[in-house]
Specification:
Number of strands: 7
Order of helices and strands: HEHHHEEEEEEHHHHHHHHHHHHHHHHHH
Radius of gyration: 23 Å
Strand order of the largest sheet: 1-5-3-7-2
Strand content: 5-15%
Oligomer: single chain
């Protein structure tokens, strides 16, 4: 059992939520780091970058992620049963490369159809050598994880450095890029991704208080958004009262500031309106108009509406139904913060004529623990003509947890159906107008397999075993990986039998190369 001394502190979790990263150090022998680096160097130059196979090709890397420092950090952010995702990569930054890693600020390609502000995913950037700014560490821009669009020079750039074993735990959506290596030395960095399997029921870090401490160093302040994530991670996503001092803020000046020509003032005013809660319900229409504002302002407006009670919830539901697609998406995030009060309206939106609105409603319904009514409605969505709606419903069923065995049955059925469709090519082409996720060939099967990993228990094996066995034959590498992990998690004799038969021909030998074939 992991000793609590290795868990993150309240201050570190606050930094992760607000800035999107925490820098940690893994105390391991220098010799191990050197041996792994030398082995990776040989692989890169003699065989090329092994991509997802970097771990089986250099299995010593596993030791980096089994230390209490790493386990404590990931447990704190993703919960104790987090999963190491099958996508991972070794980033090699050579001196003199004018465009390392493409040279552009970016977010990594996401693994769901819509990014979540709440930490269902995280990444670790791991350095096996002493890293200086001259060596071109991966640059990160604090506070940008919640932005779909890059904020440009408004953000601060951080170049994490340190001794071998330095790692940066980052929010999956944080904007980052490789920086120029001007040192004359090769720079190696391992990027590994991790997945949360269950919504939090209580804090999984060393939690001592209930209040967040606001820190600087972000392009904008998003107090209501941050507090929503903080409360969700504590297993208490309710609408708590903030403080007596905030109650004293007069509404009239805020109403004027919402119309300011200065976007910083508008963003701050929207945040303060949200802190007033239902007392500021009269400002819901003005906040609704701000969902068409610049993204940081719109984020604050959406999350403020989520705190204004029924007036805010009704405005968000109206905008999701009637607004532009961008406004509807922003409203979906605000409805997540509105909590259970938004559920009746979201269930109604599942019947909307536009697939975008139905899909967003399914996405937002993942905010609540599963009930029979919500689960039944989402299961019905699995017959929707839109694959986008179906995928969001699949993911919501997994993220909210299984309410009944019928959920696993529905997920198993759609997984099998998606495998059968692979032969006709439809699984690869039906999403061309929805996402750019070319790295996921079977998107419905991928989502179904991940949701089964999140929901299936040993009692469900008779229901899911056949679909998981078929999924091991999928053309999609990630469907196969999730099926493998789900069977490993279930660990019944039937599951182990399938695993053993799959493992025998799939076993990787990291010592076999073109230079040493036997």
């Amino acid at each position: 059992m992991l000793d609590s001394q290795w868990l993150l502190t309240d201050e570190q979790i606050c930094q992760f939520i607000m800035k999107g990263y925490v820098v940690l150090h893994n105390e391991l022998p220098d010799q191990l780091h050197t041996e792994v680096r030398d082995k990776i160097n040989a692989v890169l130059h003699e065989e090329g970058n092994p991509g997802n196979n970097i771990l089986p090709r250099v299995p010593e890397i596993q030791q980096f992620f089994e230390t209490p420092v790493v386990q404590g950090a990931l447990t704190s952010v993703l919960g104790p049963d987090y999963y190491m995702h099958p996508h991972r990569h070794c980033h090699y930054n050579q001196p003199g490369d004018p465009l390392p890693g493409g040279g552009q600020w970016h977010k990594d390609g996401y693994w769901s159809s819509m990014r979540s502000h709440r930490p269902w995913w995280a990444m670790i950037f791991y350095y096996m050598q002493d890293i200086t700014e001259e060596m071109g560490p991966t640059a990160i821009m604090p506070g940008t994880a919640y932005y779909d669009k890059f904020v440009g020079d408004q953000g601060e750039t951080i170049l994490p450095t340190g001794k071998a074993g330095t790692m940066v735990l980052v929010h999956f959506d944080l904007w980052h890029k490789a920086s120029l290596n001007v040192s004359g030395m090769d720079r190696y960095m391992l990027k590994f991704q991790f997945v949360r399997l269950r919504a939090p029921e209580s804090p999984s870090w060393n939690h001592l208080g209930t209040e967040m401490n606001l820190t600087g160093g972000t392009p904008y302040v998003h107090w209501n958004l941050w507090r929503d994530v903080w409360n969700w991670m504590r297993g208490e996503p309710g609408q708590e009262n903030l403080s007596a001092t905030e109650d004293e803020v007069p509404i009239e000046p805020l109403a004027e500031e919402l119309k300011s020509e200065d976007e910083v003032i508008r963003a701050r005013a929207a945040d303060q309106v949200g802190m007033l809660g239902e007392k500021a319900a009269s400002l819901a229409p003005e906040l609704g108009r701000m969902l068409n504002d610049k993204e940081p302002v719109a984020l604050n407006a959406g999350y403020a509406l989520g705190r204004l009670g029924s007036a805010g919830t009704d405005e968000l539901l109206r905008l999701m139904s009637e607004g532009t697609r961008q406004i509807a998406e922003r409203a979906a995030y605000g409805l997540q913060s509105a909590g259970a009060g938004a559920v009746p309206g979201l269930l109604t939106l599942l019947e909307h004529t536009d697939e975008k609105r139905r899909a967003l409603a399914a996405f937002a319904l993942a905010i609540v623990p599963s009930t029979r009514e919500v689960a039944s409605a989402l299961i019905a969505c699995l017959q929707d003509p839109s694959d986008w709606v179906r995928r969001n419903a699949i993911e919501a069923l997994g993220m909210m947890g299984s309410e009944a065995g019928e959920v696993c049955q529905a997920l198993a059925s759609i997984l099998e159906e998606s495998i059968l469709q692979e032969g006709g090519g439809t699984a690869e082409t039906r999403y061309n107008d929805i996402t750019q996720q070319s790295y996921i060939l079977n998107k419905l099967g991928y989502s179904a397999a991940l949701s089964l990993l999140r929901t299936a228990s040993p009692e469900d094996v008779p229901i899911v075993i056949h679909s998981l066995e078929q999924a091991l034959l999928s053309k999609d590498r990630y469907v196969r990986a999730y099926a493998f992990e789900t069977l490993t998690h279930l660990r019944t004799p039937e599951a182990m039998d399938v695993l053993i038969r799959y493992y025998r021909p799939a076993r990787w030998c990291p010592d076999t190369t073109k230079a040493s074939t036997f």
